[in-house]
Amino acid sequence: MQNLTEGNIFKTLVKYSAPIVLGDLLQASYSSIDALWVGRLIGADALAAISASGPIMFLIIALVIGIAIATVIMVGQAYGMGDMKFLEKILVNSYMTVAILCILISTLSIVFSGSILKFINTPEVIRADAQKFLVIIFAGLIFMFSFNWFSGVLRGLGDSKTPFMLLIISIVLNIILAPVLITGAFGLFPKLGIAGSALATVISQLLTTVYAFIYLAKKNVLLNIFKWNYRFDFAIIKKMFAIGVPVSLQMMINALSAVIIVSFVNRFGPSVIAAFGIGMRIDQFSFMPAMSLGSSVTAMVSQHIGAGKQEKIPEIMFNAMLLSLGFALFFYIPVNLFPHQIASIFTSGAPVGAELGKYFRLDSPTYFAYAAMFAIQGVIRGAGDTIPLTIISLITLLIFRAGIVWGLVSFTHLNQSGIWAGMVISIYVGMILSYLYYKYGNWKQKSLAQLEKKEALGSTEAK
Predict the structure, then answer these.
(1) Cβ(160)–Cβ(83) under 8 Å?
(2) pLDDT at residue 157 in the model
(3) Distance of alpha carbon 12 from alpha carbon 338, whole angstroms
């Protein structure tokens, strides 16, 4: 555990966020590895199948992710207050809630995966493979969330190194297992194709989760799930949902927007779908540092609020934004210079490379908007004020993005370029609205109200 409220802001941010940035870049490579193995070992259609399934996975995961983020916020503020009993109750109730939601969502997702793929116009030639991939991933959803839950809690406690270590273990396992299960290498396993890629992901997350349970139980008594007092505290759960539901709604809006985009992309055939899938995976390498720094801002801001040091918040945001813009520039240059070479890593199809070049030319300016927006939203989220961000996402991603993409595709000759242009415009609108709320909104007052309520709740629980 680490106190994030002491010392130089920039040094603390860099030291704390470095493992998170590296870990999330590795997480981006995790999904890219799947795409690389599938594209190289099976073909472009199989690559298109996992590309079509990606936004659906994100949509389903978004249903639970809000509780995980609410946990990080509440853990950070409780730790900043120094209330360990309250902190333990937060951990217990959060994990029980996440586990129950995971089991319910996994079951429903497996049952309706085929209908969802059909609804978003997934081409029939890739639909069976996409459904096969989704069903296996959803069957192992509990392992994914257990792993990410532990990582989020540790980050809220100021420990960003242990989640990084666990992620490396998971990625190494996936790198080893994916080609073996896809091709049936060495005659040890049957040739599973695209199902092997999904199964490699689930098995690697399962093994890493088991290791995390054992390792963390030995490291910190607070994280020993075998010694927890499993009792529901509905006051804490209510608070988690109050913070987490708007976050989940925001993530669901993001995911639903991506599903809508994919439904437009699916009109233009497997080459465009594959290019979009590659482009989104490469985009992650730019988005992830900004997202990681944004989540670092959330953890730091929550601890500063818990410790009553709100005056340092602008400096935290400024430093995070500066670092994020540097990462954005670093990735912007190569994707525009070498799109065909990037495409050739995943598949040998020339049409995919040409489509990827068009995608990057229009899409890559979003890197700079995301860099600024995630830093700003990290502050607002760290204050526990999550509803306005949900409203901003609703305006920019569902109403504005979906509307402008529909208009450009339906009433111009831009075709898929209209999709990429609509994505860029909507993100810049989101960045501007986020800044306006940071500048003129009442998130500061809400952060003080959240703190007062937590102090009261912690005092009540102590009695």
Answers:
(1) no
(2) 72
(3) 35
Integer Cα distance of 61 and 74 in angstroms? 21
Contact 173, 147 (CB under 8 A): no
Give 91-149 pLDDT, tens digit per residue.
888 888 888 888 888 888 888 888 888 887 777 788 888 888 888 888 888 888 887 77
Nearest alpha carbon to residue 260 among 399, 120, 396, 363: 120
Distance of CA 347 to the CA centre of its chain: 26
Rounded Cα–Cα distance for residues 56 and 79 (Å) = 35
Rounded Cα distance between 247 and 227, Å, is 30
Task: Determine whether 74 is exposed, middle or buried from the number of CB atoms within 10 Å of its CB (0-12, 13-18, 19+).
Answer: buried
410 three-class SS: helix
237: region left, alpha or beta (phi > 0 left; psi from -120 to 50 alpha): alpha
Query: Is the pTM value of this prediction over 0.85?
Result: no
Separation CA 94–CA 88 (nearest Å) = 10
For the chain, the residue count is 463
CA–CA separation, 333 vs 356, rounded Å? 15
Has residue 286 got a pLDDT over 50? yes
